Records
---
Amino acid sequence: MSAFLVTGGAGFIGSNFVRHLVEHTDHTVTVLDKLTYAGNRASIDDLPAERVSLVVGDVADAAVVGPLVRDHDVVVHYAAESHNDNSLNDPSPFVQTNLVGTYVLLEAVREHGTRYHHISTDEVYGDLELDDPARFTEETPYNPSSPYSSTKAGSDLLVRAWARSFGVPATISNCSNNYGPYQHVEKFIPRQITNVLDGGRPKLYGAGLNVRDWIHADDHSSAVLRIIEAGRLGETYLIGADGEVDNKTVVEMVLRLCGQPADAYDHVTDRAGHDLRYAIDSTKLRDELGWAPQFGDFEAGLATTIDWYRDHQEWWRPQKSGVEAMYAAQGQ
Ligand code: NAD
Ligand code: TDX
C-alpha cells in the first residue's frame, strides 16, 4: 500500500483516476486541488474518507506542496488549466499553473526523491493532415499550437530535464481526448449533450471536419496506473484507444442517441488556430506494458455518458448558463 498525492484530483480525469485507485488498489489518496471553476468537490465526495482526503491548495505554492510531497510515496500530476478556448482568451493562468506549478512540484519531488508521474496531452505534437497515414508516436517532434498546448509542452520538457539532470524518478504520459462522466460542460462532448438535454442545439466549430482520437477516461486511468506500476523511469508513453472520429460525426451521434434529427445543430465561429487532427499510436504502451483499452465501442461509451449527464443534472447545471453566456459572447 502506498500514499498517493494526486494533483487536480477534483477535475474530470483526475477524479476518475482517484476513483480508479479506490476501486482497483489499496492505496490511500490525498487530492491537492485549487478548486478553480473546473474543480468540483462533488466529483469525489462519495469516496470513502478513510481512503481519500482533499487539500484545497495551489500546485504553484511551494509552502503547501513541500510538506505534502514529503509525506507521500507517489505524486501524480493532473492539475492544469485545461481548456484551449480559455487559453486563447487569457493565457496567464495557463503559464502560471501549467509551467510554474509543474516547476514547483518538480523541485519538491527532487528534494524528497519521490516517484513522479506527469499527465500530459497529445496536443504537444501539433496536428496532422486528415489523410496523413502517420500517427503521433513517442518520437514525434513537439510542435504545439495553442497557449494551452504550448504550456503543456513546456511542462513536459521541464520533467524530462529534471529526470535527466537531477535523476528525478519520473514518467510522462501523453493521452488523446478523453470522454466520460464528470467532464466540465465547457468541453465539446458534455456541451453538446447538455445543450440537447436543455432543449437547445449542438454548436459545431467551423465545418466540423476536425478529428479527435477519443478514449474513455476509465481507459486513461488504467493506463496511467499501469505506467506507474511497470513503466521505465525517464520514459514517455502515449495513451490512445484508436478512437478517431470527426466532430460532425460526434454531434450527429449525440443527436441520434438523444432521439433528435441528426442535422439539428448549428455551425458557429471556428476556434483560432484550430488543430485539424490528432491520432495516437499507443504501440509502445501496449507491447511493453501489456495495456489494452476496455471501451472498444465509442458509440456505446457515448450512450452511457449521455445517460450519466441525464441522471446527474445537479452536478452540471450550476455551470451551464455561465458557460453558454461566455460562448455566446464570442459567437460560439
Ligand atoms: P479539468 O479542467 O477538468 O481539471 C483540472 C483540475 O485541476 C481542476 O480540478 C482544477 O481545480 C485543478 N487545478 C487547476 N489549477 C490548479 C492549481 N493551480 N493548483 C491545484 N489545482 C488546480 O481538466 P482535465 O480534463 O481533467 O485534465 C486533467 C489533466 O489531464 C490536465 O493536465 C490535462 O492537460 C490532461 N489531459 C486532458 C485530456 C482531456 O481530454 N481532457 C487529454 C489528455 C491530457
Ligand atoms: O462547442 C464546441 N464545438 C466544437 O466543435 C467545442 C467546445 C469544441 N468543439 C470542437 C473543438 C475541437 O475540435 O470539438 C473538438 C474538441 O474540443 P475540446 O473539448 O475543447 O477539446 P480539445 O481542444 O481537443 O482538447 C481536449 O483534448 C486534449 C482537452 O480539452 C485538453 O485538455 C486535452 O489536452
---
Amino acid sequence: MSHNRVEIMHGVNLDQLGRRDARHYGGLTFDQLEQRIASFGSELGLVTRFFQTNHEGKFVEHLHGLDGMVDGLIVNPGAWTHYSWAIRDALEIAALPAIEVHLSDVGAREEWRQVSVVRDLCVATVSGEGPEGYRTALARLKQELSDA
Ligand code: DQA
C-alpha cells in the first residue's frame, strides 16, 4: 500500500496572502501558493488535498475528519500556532505524521511568534523558507511516510 496522500491545512488569515506584508510572506496570492504546493507535491509523487479556514472550530473539525482519508499532514495554522490549545489537541487526536510550516522566519520575529503549541507534535518544522518551505516539508513528509 502506498502512503502518499497529504492534506495541506492553512489557518487564519492565510487566505489574505497577497495583501499581507510581502517582506515576511512574499508576493504570491493564496491561490498561487496552493498551486505551487500542488506542483511540488506532484513532482514528489504525492497526492495533495487542500483546506483553509478562518474559523478555529472548522479547523478542529477538519482535523477530526481526516481519519483514514490521508497519510500525512502539512499544517500552517497562522497565528493559531502560537496559542490554540484546541488545535493542538485536535492535531494529537488526528495522530498523523505532520510537518509545521511557516512562510516567515517566526524564530526571528516577535517573541509571541516564537512560541508554537503544535511543534512538539510535529515531525519537523520548516520556517522562513517562503513557498519553497513547502517543498522542503513535502520531501520530509515523503521520507517519513516511506519509513512508515
Ligand atoms: C505564519 C506566521 C504566523 O506568526 C502568522 O500569524 C501567520 C503566518 C507564517 O506562515 O509565516 O499568519 O504562520
